[in-house]
Fold these 3 entries.
Entry 1:
Amino acid sequence: MESFLFDPFQADFMQNGALAAMLVGVLCGTVGCFVVMRGTALLAESVAHGVLPGVAVAVLLTAGTSGDPDKAAILCGALAGGVLTAAGSAVILRRTRLREDTAIAVMFVFMLALGVVLISRVDGFAVDLTSFLFGDVLSVPDWEVALTAGLAAVVLLVMWALYRPFVLVSFDRRRAASLGVSVERTELALMILLAVAVVVGFTIVGALLVLGLLIAPPAAAALLTKRLPSMMAVSALIAAASGPLGLLVSWHFEVAAGASIVLVAVAAFAVTAVLRPAR
């Protein structure tokens, strides 16, 4: 049993992957609590796909300079695309009378279509697109682990500093406004934090699967806790544990690493839903 659990992590790439996955798990598990509590899963999915145009632009600008697209540039482009998607959704909501899901869907399809158009201009983008969609956790370098840790720390610090406005806006926008909270700015800040979490997560599990880490651990934690701080702690723990456990599944069964991580997180929710006494 000891060799089953620890032998795979003797390799440096497995250690880097496990650490990066745990950091992403803590980040997505915490930010995802607001996604689940506010019922904005569609927004999270929109941001996850909204990074595609930024990635395509970064590839267009850097692929011809060194033969391969610069990974740091791709991260910056993805962050710009995610923030633009979040900001665009906020603008549409503010300037129209559309329902929230409709406004988000409009921005979602626009960014997705724009990304596909830009990708069609990039020669030989298929390999990079596969990595973008499904992640590449087993090739995370040291500098990316450090960057992931830094971004996660910044996001968690901002969430701690703005915790009260975030909670007020999430539960009762009118009461938040009556208490002097800038509702629009607070919601935009929350969207930007979501965009950062998505960008950090897509390098590990991919844009198609990062939603799993944003939804499944918080959903499981919501079944086990009654207070938001406890929900965040349990969600972060579940998401962080899903990283190394998913890599073990990937190693022993020779399946995709990113998908294995998300499957473990969803399995934790399924077990919680089945075993938890009904209220």
Note: The CA atoms of residues 16 and 246 lie 14 Å apart.
Entry 2:
Amino acid sequence: MTDSATLCDVEREVVVCRRCPRLVAWREEVARVRRAAFASEEYWGRPLPGFGDPGASVLVLGLAPAAHGGNRTGRIFTGDRSGDWLFGSMYRTGFANQSTSVSRDDGLRLADAWVTAAVRCAPPANRPTPVERDNCLPYLVRELGLLASVRVIVSLGSFAWDVALRALAAVGEPRPRPRPKFGHGAEAEIGGFVLLGCYHPSQQNTFTGKLTEPMIDAVFERAKELAGRGQKRS
């Protein structure tokens, strides 16, 4: 597939990116020092590309890789508690073939979904700077341009919501006024896309009950419904 080959080109550029000195230093330090539980593992320690179904109608946008999750395994949301929640929900709602993901080669396959991140390197304290956000934005813009069937963007958290709005503006979609506000279950139709908000499946949200399994499942069921109504973009 031509689109698949071009997405592979983006992937090759992402994994060698060194645009952000702070993020490069942090991701490599984490990969070198390692957490005790993973001391015997070889960490990925590089930026993470998106992955999934090139014909996807739903794009799932996270914040950034976890230091000992994606930065270790080499795939966004793979090997961490947030991923357990995300892939569990995607499995229950028909977007994934299995409910957990622990490594890049564990057999996970996505159907009609593409998973990616606003920032491609693990940031200290999970807090990218505005400059780091903007340095990564072109990768998401290129993915949106290549994923011609994407109709719905599920934004996991307010940071991803903001980045999705910036990316949609960059691909030429109209800037809505007033600016849509993030909220769990919030929806905003922007040109040929629908932006759908979901609380991030971080432990801060799942341990406190701010986000429950029925809540995240409802978002993905809604994404499926919205995607089914859309037409492929030209």
Note: DSSP finds eight helices and six strands in the chain.
Entry 3:
Amino acid sequence: MAEFYNRTRKSPSIPLSLLKRGHVAGLLLYCLLQGSDLAREGFENSGSYSFADHIYRNVASGRNSLGRWVDARLLGMPAVRSFRSRFLASRDELAHFLCQRSGAELSILSVPCGIPRDLVEGAAIARQRGADLSKVTFHGLDLDPEVLRKATRFAGENGLKNFRVREGDALCSSSYPAVADFISSTGLAEFLDDERLGILYGRVFAPLRPGGVFLSSGMQRRAISEYLLKIAELRVNYRNAERLAELARATGFAEVRASYDDLGIQSILVARK
């Protein structure tokens, strides 16, 4: 059976787990956060594609006015704004790449794709800048068939032509297209140890054409975000930009650039084969 790497929760009930551990403050906070769509999605479905896309979309919502207020406060937290920065980095890097290769036959891949907002918005920005995308094929790779159905609908509704889906495990070479020119993978590294992350980088490296670009991300530890992740029982791997660069160079990438977002929390890796 394929493994969903972001599903790290062990307890059948988070409130019961908090009570057993005597975390009364955590239980009260959990109850308050339940009104927020963002927090509830995080608690119920670990680090799901809906959780990530809620942050990328950046529109507060909840069960009632208090829930929407809480949701807005969460979206305004530095750790959450930093989380969104990885989407913005992927979107903008893709737009830049498409403009540089305007008119060329290209294969673009997002893995795992979730809701492919970075592909949709990156392509839209490139078109606004005059890029010819008529020969570009976009691919979304994900393990969850339901996600792929939603990704296909989202792409179609938002004008992303030539979007193809691939159901498979990001750590299996057979999941990937034969060739790719640009691959983005954000939000997966946090759920992989160094060994598995090295495997992911190797799987990405193989289909990239010479000169192809790979964009990925990592996260640094911050006290408040770590506390909320622990309540949701999400266990993540923290890495700085330097560590991401080391792993990319060990894979064989010729040019590696790793930096931090403006808040110094998200690490953004851009590597060229």
Note: The two ends are 32 Å apart (CA to CA).
